[in-house]
Amino acid sequence: MPVLGLQLMMLKDQINAKGMYEVLREVRDLDLDAVEVSQVEMTDELINDLVRGRTDFDVEIAAMSASIAPGGNGFALETELDRAVEACRRTGTRFLRIGMMPFEAMTSKEACEAWAASVEPYAARLAGQGITLCYHNHHVDLIQFDGERIFDIVRRVAPSLLFEVDLHWVQRGGMAPLDMLAAYEGACKLIHVKDFRVAPLPEETYKKFEAKEIDMKEFYGHFLSLAQFAEVGQGTMNWPDLLPAAEKAGAEYFFIEQDDTYGRDPYDCIRESREYLRSIGY
C-alpha cells in the first residue's frame, strides 16, 4: 500500500512561523507518515530541520520541489542540481517534483515539446542518482494539440520524467480520473489526494444580482468560482475506487492536499481528510 503523507504547502505559513522541525512533529501527531515539501525556501537551515525531523519523528521526506530555471519553486536544477542531489541523499528523498510547467509551454504543441525536451536531460541525470523527477499536473494538462494531450507530449518527449497526479485537477480538466490512471499506468508515482466540490451559490451574491448591484458578467464570475477544493471525503471524488486504481498505476505515495481551506484552520481540514481515509482503510 502507498505511504500516506501530507503536501506541506498546506502548512507553509506555519513552517515560516515556527520552523520545519516543529511542523514535522505536528505531522506525526496527525498520524501521517510522510511529507512533500513545497512553496518554502530550501535554505540550509530548512534542510537540516528535515534531516532532524526525519530521525526524531520517523517522518519520511518523500518528495521535494524543483524547477528547471531559477525563480521557480524549490531547487533550480540549472544551477542547483548537485545541491538537490545532496539534499535528497541527506533526507532519504527519492522523488523531486516540478509543480507546473511554465505558462509559455502551455500555449502550443511546439512550446510544450521544447519545455519537455529541456527537462529530459535533468530527469535522466537524476535517475542515474536514484532520484525520480515527476511532473505535477493541473487542469491545463488536458489541453490537446493535434489530438495529443499535454500529458502525452510530456511522456513522448521526456520519457525519464514521470508523473505526480493531482486527481482533483484531472477531474476539473474534464477527464475521468480513473481513465487517466489507466492511460498512464506505470508512470504515476505520486498522487495528490484532494477532493472536488461545488459550493452553494451565496445568497448575498444572488441578492446583489437581483438588485442590479452587480451585472451579469460579475455574477457569472461568481457562478464559475463555485468549483472548490475540498477535504477528502467531502466532495464528489470516488476515493474507494480511485486509490486502488492509483496504486495499480504505480503510486508509491498518497499526499493529502487542499489548495484553499476557505477560512478553516488547515489542521482541522487535514484531520478531517485523515479520518475519512482511515475510514476506508488507509
Write a brief structural summary.
With 282 residues, the chain is an alpha/beta fold. The protein has helices at 12-18, 20-29, 44-57, 77-91, 109-128, 150-157, 167-172, 177-183, 203-210, 216-224, 239-248, 266-279; strands at 3-7, 34-37, 60-67, 75-76, 95-98, 132-136, 144-145, 148-149, 162-166, 188-193, 195-198, 227-230, 253-256.
Topology of helices and strands:
Blueprint: E1 3-7, H1 12-18, H2 20-29, E2 34-37, H3 44-57, E3 60-67, E4 75-76, H4 77-91, E5 95-98, H5 109-128, E6 132-136, E7 144-145, E8 148-149, H6 150-157, E9 162-166, H7 167-172, H8 177-183, E10 188-193, E11 195-198, H9 203-210, H10 216-224, E12 227-230, H11 239-248, E13 253-256, H12 266-279
How does this structure look, described?
- The protein is α/β, with parallel strands linked by helices and 282 residues long.
- The chain folds into two domains: 3-194 and 232-279, Divalent-metal-dependent TIM barrel enzymes (TIM Barrel), CATH 3.20.20.150; 198-228, no CATH class.
- Helix content is 45%, strand content 20%.
- It is built from twelve helices and 13 strands.
- It has helices at residues 12-18, 20-29, 44-57, 77-91, 109-128, 150-157, 167-172, 177-183, 203-210, 216-224, 239-248, 266-279; strands at residues 3-7, 34-37, 60-67, 75-76, 95-98, 132-136, 144-145, 148-149, 162-166, 188-193, 195-198, 227-230, 253-256.
- The strands form three sheets. Strands 1-2-3-5-6-9-10-13 form an eight-stranded parallel β-barrel, surrounded by four helices. It has a two-stranded antiparallel sheet with strand order 7-8.
- A hairpin with a 2-residue loop joins strand 7 (144-145) and strand 8.
- Helix 1 (12-18) packs across helix 2 (20-29) and helix 8 runs parallel beside helix 11.
- The longest helix has 20 residues, at 109-128.
- It is globular and about 60 Å long.
